[in-house]
Specification:
Layout lengths: L5 H8 L3 H9 L7 E2 L5 E2 L2 H15 L4 H8 L4 H38 L6 H12 L1 H32 L3 H23 L1 E4 L6 E2 L3 H6 L6 E5 L6 E8 L2
Antiparallel strand pairs: 1-2, 3-4, 3-6, 5-6
Helix pairs in contact: 1-2, 5-6, 7-8
């Protein structure tokens, strides 16, 4: 069975020799063997115990509490729960860090597309990123309703062509028209646009939004603040 000196066990656990000596004086890590020269020798069990002590110290448990915990008949039960909670906390922290990293990568990617870099540009990108999920949700709803509209249109046309019955198509087209108007109003009510010239966030009228040329993320509009007429960036409207 392996034996470890004070220096070796300190190195394996990533602590100082003085820390190991301190735990010895506090009675929570006492070696059960001495070398012929009087040097303290620690066993594999001592090494495991030391790693547990280090873990508990990372949880900010005081030395007295650690000593009491390790003197329990079944300390592994409590330590198992602490390990589970620590794992959960670390997983949550990793998720948050990953979300922050994704935002940084997205910001970096967005900045590369900005022709003239400025503080206002960062503000615009931050505003878009903050509301991106909400805007994506609205677009998902629109796609779902659009799919229903397509099914009604194709289904009634097929019925007309195969049976000669035309009235379901007429009724279906009325329903599709009503759904189209409703979903457009729903969408434009929840969207706004950022002017690339003055960086103002504004809401155009339904008529302006509906008839303006657009791309998936922009729409050609006139800014009411500075009068700029061009493609403005779409964002979620609170």
């Amino acid at each position: 069975m392996s034996k470890y000196t004070t220096g070796e066990i300190a190195k394996l656990c990533g602590v100082s020799v003085r820390t190991v000596q301190y735990y010895d004086t506090r009675g929570i890590l006492v070696p059960n063997e001495l070398s012929e020269g009087g040097r303290r020798l620690y066993s594999e069990e001592d090494l495991k115990r030391m790693k547990i002590i280090c873990f508990l110290r990372e949880l900010d448990l005081p030395i007295n509490s650690i000593g009491e915990l390790l003197s329990e008949e079944h300390p592994e039960d409590v330590i198992g729960i602490l390990l589970g909670e620590q794992e959960k906390a670390l997983s949550e922290e990793i998720s948050k860090k990953r979300a922050k990293l994704d935002k940084l990568e997205e910001l970096e990617h967005s900045l590369k597309r900005v022709e003239h870099f400025s503080v206002e540009s960062i503000g615009d990108i931050a505003h878009i990123m903050e509301n991106k999920k909400k805007l994506r949700k609205i677009r998902t709803i629109m796609l779902a309703i659009g799919l229903v509209m397509d099914i009604i249109e194709v289904g009634t046309i097929y019925l007309w062509c195969t049976t000669g019955i035309w009235w379901p198509f007429a009724v279906g087209m009325c329903a599709v028209l009503a759904m189209g108007i409703w979903i457009s109003a729903f969408y434009f009510k929840r969207t706004a646009y950022i002017c690339p010239k003055c960086h103002a966030v504004f809401k155009p009228t339904f008529k302006q939004s509906f008839w303006s040329p657009h791309t998936p993320n922009t729409r050609k509009l006139k800014c009411p603040d500075c009068g700029h007429h061009g493609f403005c960036v779409e964002t979620y409207s609170k």
